[in-house]
Write a structure and sequence with these properties.
- This protein is an alpha+beta fold.
- It has a domain of 108 residues: Gcn5-related N-acetyltransferase (GNAT) (Aminopeptidase, 3-Layer(aba) Sandwich).
- Helix 3 links the parallel strand 4 and strand 5.
- Helix 1 crosses helix 2.
- Keywords: Acyltransferase, Transferase.
- Pfam families: Acetyltransf_1 (PF00583).
- This is N-acetyltransferase domain-containing protein.
């Protein structure tokens, strides 16, 4: 059962707390981000076409998500109308398993009838969330620089 009080589009004042959730979740998974990576994510959160969503409970910002217009040529090309790409959904580690990710992900779907995302193949928690939210594997896979396998999922409304 979820104890989320509010899920909404992030305002400027919400961006640093959202970044803190992202950082804490990565650290808890043993993937502490470098200062350069933190700055790249901070810039993505502030991008004019970013859709940033935050969730609050009694303890503050508990979850965050970022989506952006889907683009041709694996993200290097022009935006594709009606297509969004979910770049991140993260929940504060002390709130894992409480249902906070699902409403954040649902809010990221609102602007687009089609969304895609990439996730690590071994991230069972994220895959359960995505599959429960209607995502299906596209069959596309890749390897990150450190060797981890990732897979693409897609949701069509």
């Amino acid at each position: 059962m979820s104890d989320v009080i509010e899920v909404r589009r992030a305002g400027t004042a919400d961006l640093e707390p959202a970044l803190d959730v992202w950082r804490a979740a990565n650290e808890a998974r043993g993937r502490a981000p470098t200062p350069a990576r933190i700055e790249r994510v901070r810039a993505k959160l502030r991008a004019p076409d970013a859709v940033v969503v935050v969730a609050f409970d009694g303890a503050g910002t508990v979850a965050m998500g970022l989506a952006e217009p889907g683009r041709a040529d694996d993200g290097a090309g022009a935006p594709i109308p009606g297509y969004g790409h979910v770049s991140m959904v993260f929940v504060r580690p002390d709130a894992w398993g409480r249902g906070h990710g699902a409403p954040v992900l649902a809010a990221l779907h609102e602007p687009w009838p089609r969304t895609t995302l990439w996730t690590r193949e071994d991230n069972a928690r994220a895959r359960r969330l995505y599959e429960k939210s209607g995502y299906l594997p596209t069959g596309r896979t890749a390897r990150l620089a450190e060797g981890d396998g990732i897979m693409q999922l897609e949701r069509i409304r």
